[in-house]
Design brief:
Elements lengths: L8 E4 L3 H14 L4 E4 L2 H10 L4 E5 L7 H10 L8 E5 L4 H10 L3 E4 L4 H12 L3
Parallel strand pairs: 1-2, 1-3, 3-4, 4-5
Length: 128
């Protein structure tokens, strides 16, 4: 199945520089429609008004973390099938296990590059 390069992707991070880096990496990979949210609650609001083909969220944010966002998404019948990739600066095994148990599709530890992002997206969505 070919990945739709025009599907909307939501990136969630409270750090503007990180949003810019992820947006640029996605653009390098050929994705054209990228929306941003500064925290989990803003992301949830956007997800309830627009259907996203993929969510890429940072773990550590205030007031709603990426982990809380993931749990909210998985608990919502209209959102629960949305592919979700978590990004974190910490490679704590506990966090990885908690995210997996909450239903994350994949996990990226910072720092990462376009090749890493592509391999994680490919693992979730298929080749592109």
């Amino acid at each position: 199945m070919a990945v739709d390069m025009n599907m909307p992707i939501l990136i969630v991070d409270d750090y503007k520089t990180m949003l810019r880096i992820i947006r640029n990496l996605l653009k390098q990979l050929g994705f054209n429609v990228v929306d941003e949210a500064a925290d989990g609650s803003a992301a949830l609001t956007k997800m309830r008004t627009k259907k996203y083909g993929l969510v890429i969220s940072d773990w550590n944010m205030e007031p709603m973390t990426g982990y809380q966002l993931l749990k909210e998404v998985r608990a919502d019948d209209t959102l629960k099938a949305t592919p979700f990739i978590m990004i974190t600066a910490e490679s704590k095994t506990d966090n990885v296990i908690a995210a997996k148990q909450a239903g994350v599709n994949n996990y990226i530890v910072k720092p990462f590059n376009a090749a890493t992002l592509k391999s994680k997206i490919t693992a979730v969505l298929g080749d592109f």
